[in-house]
Amino acid sequence: MVDYYAVLQLPHDADDAAIEAAFAKLSRAYDASVLAGVSDELRTLAEQRVFALTQAHAVLADPTLRAAYDAGLTQVVAKALATAEPTLDYRPLPAAGARERIPGFVVDPQGSNPAAGVVLNRTVPLFFAITLPLLIVLVAFVLTDGGTKVAPKNDTPPVQTASSQIDQFEAAIATAKLATDSAPTNAAAWIEYGNMLYNSVQVVRELDPNSVTYNDRIERWQMAAVAYEKAMTLSPDNVVVVADHGAALCFYGNGVSDKKSSNAGLQQMRSVVAAIPTEEKSRVLMNLGYCLVENTPPQVEEASKIWQSVIDAEAKDSPIAIQAAKLIAQYR
Length: 332
What we know:
By secondary structure, the protein is an all-alpha fold. Helices cover 60% and strands 2% of the residues. The radius of gyration is 24 Å and the shape is elongated.
């Protein structure tokens, strides 16, 4: 795979502003006004250089693709570049010496796409579009749809503002609580209530983890754990609820420096991870990895191995595999 950092003459820790500045500066050297009158050979070389710059920019300017590239997922990057819309320049050409465009050429056709960059399919947020709205946002990954958690960066309905994203579960929490009040022996009602509490703090954790809002909501991890504990009493064989109860405890403990809660949650997740159904396993493993890297001390090596197992189990261009690759690169 091409070294895209070298193409843009950037260090590997370059930020977004540096990437944009380097791309703009290098691209100017190949502007049509600069190339007017040069030989065909030099023009061909310039076109090749522009192509390389555009691809490098497409990868490094996209957080999801950059994470996949940094993690060595060359197939993911290659597939995204192969399916990207071509960058076309419909500006009038400079004088061409009797080789002008053919009669009837449309200068600005409808639907042209002159903007550089890669647009990924909705199924590849990573967050991994993995969704902020990177993928909204993949992140994690633990929002609910009818009681089943899904990746928030990829599957939550489109919203207009960060505030609406953060508050999208507030009404659902109240509704779910009413359901538990009216049916206190219904395990599904307690699971739904736990999921809504979980989601309402998880979405802030992904969008604005160091904010006042997150600190205000951090106790919802504990509230979710209590709801899951009620469900576990009513449905003791539901290993997914056990894992989510452990994750909620662990995230709460890590967030408030409560070592007892974080260790209890970590132990609980480990105790059931082998029994988690296939359709839920990758999500549970992602959370287990998060719990490990945020523990005291951080257990980065074990978390990286767990996230690598997610990459190995999922399609390489799936949102959750890309998110796992991003996390490995981030914590490595």
